[in-house]
Amino acid sequence: WTHPLRAANSKAPPAGQFSGFAVPCMGENATMKSMPVQRAARGFTLIELLLVLVILGILAAIVVPKFAGRTEQARLTAAQTQISSFGTALDAFEVDNGYYPKGKSGLSDLVQAPRDAQNWRGPYLKEVPKDPWNNDYLYECPGRRNATSYDLSSGGPDGKTGSDDDITNWQNKK
């Protein structure tokens, strides 16, 4: 006896050979008959899956620390770039008005005109951003390091001014 689907879709094995398991089946006559069944596709074993997970874990342990350091490096670069753009805006303010904004809140003079500025042609910035660690930039004019202009700095990753990780518009001696 040959199963109708098997007869239509594939060739029967040669006489005396059998592929798969014999499964009892009830035919139309209600008699027990054997029907060959093809073996199901084999999946992955637990060992294979665990091996793949271990390999992925090892790769992650190697790669993740390399990317983690890049985040902090990107923040340092962003702070240096912002200080540079502040410098451009402060220089434009100085050209228009003949002086740099005074005091510790001078960066706000780049967004809104101060009372004493006769030739203010701003705004020189859309807004005064915070540093990449969400702290305010520190502006001082006249500066302690740059007596003829201004000091501009960020507290850096630790947020504390005067530490080795500060980002400034002057050269730190290390």
Explain the overall architecture.
This protein has 174 residues and is of the alpha+beta class. 33% of the residues lie in helices and 12% in strands. The strands form two sheets. It has a three-stranded antiparallel sheet with strand order 3-4-5, with helices on one face. A two-stranded antiparallel ribbon has the order 1-2. The longest helix has 52 residues, at 46-97. It is elongated and about 100 Å long.
Architecture blueprint of SSEs:
Blueprint: H1 4-9, E1 21-26, E2 32-37, H2 46-97, E3 138-140, E4 151-154, E5 167-168
Antiparallel strand pairs: 1-2, 3-4, 4-5
Proportion in β-strands: 5-15%
Number of helices: 2
Based on Cα principal axes, name the global outline: elongated
Note the main sheet: 3 strands, antiparallel
Which H/E pattern describes the elements?
HEEHEEE
- Report mean pLDDT, rounded to a whole number: 78
Distance between the termini: 92 Å
* Structural class by sheet pairing and helices: alpha+beta
Q: Care to count the β-strands?
A: 5
What structural keywords apply?
5 strands, 33% helix, 174 residues
Question: In brief, what are we looking at here?
Answer:
The chain is of the alpha+beta class and 174 residues long. The protein is 33% helix and 12% strand. It starts with a helix and ends in a 6-residue tail after the last strand.
